[in-house]
Task: structure prediction
Amino acid sequence: MENISIVIPAYNEERAIGDVIRRVQGILTGKYTYEILVVNDGSTDRTLEEATRAGARVISNPMNMGYGFSLKRGIREAAHECVVITDADGTYPADKIPELVNTFNRGFDMVVGKREGKEYWSSIPKGIARWCFKWMSEYVVGKRIPDINSGFRAIRKSLILPILPDLSNSFSFSTSSTLIFMLKHYFVTYIPVAYGKRTGKSKVRYFRDALIATQIMTEIIARYNPIKLFLFLAVFPFLVAVVFFLMALVFGHGGLLMVSIISMYFTLFLMALGFFASMFQRR
Result:
């Protein structure tokens, strides 16, 4: 029988956590050796009581520390190499856990549930934000990423432990772990899952979390693939150099040509910094 650790971060999820735990138990009992570890992230409702009553092992943060912080704590406490993370709000299908695990056992280091369904694309602003982060992430890793921040995945514990300090303590944990695993050339794959309607109120603050995700993404590029960051920055002075050079040709103005030359030197300087940084990048 397979050994699996299920890690569920929970913050004020008294309405859903018990049902989520029971559904996981119903799917895994008799087929796997497993533990269900709930990280109660400073909840002020009955999340702790409901999770304990349902039969999970519960670890409590004395105050709310964030989604990513709770996942990190749960992963460190997990007993098994195969760690499956899922949410406490009932949005992810427990019956897909065996498929995650079976795919993981084929040699993959991370298996991610690619979300599908109307609840995933529930609003236009949310869809635009997801598309933007998907595009940015694919630029960073140079690969197609079907779902950058799904919270339903199986992860190899021995590989994620060393990079936990580099991962976000917020909702960007999923994004940052995906990027680093791909940049380190670990084996990552996706399976389709139906994304359901959540129980209770969402804890995501889209503007704040988008800023945090952008910050985390920039830090990861700088640490793991710095040349792409500097090449991206070099695009702007290069465009300025081209525009002012063309204007200098049209108007015959020496000042415009000087701006073009300075911009091109700055472009080359940024590219040189990128190549220099890539020689010392973290592996």
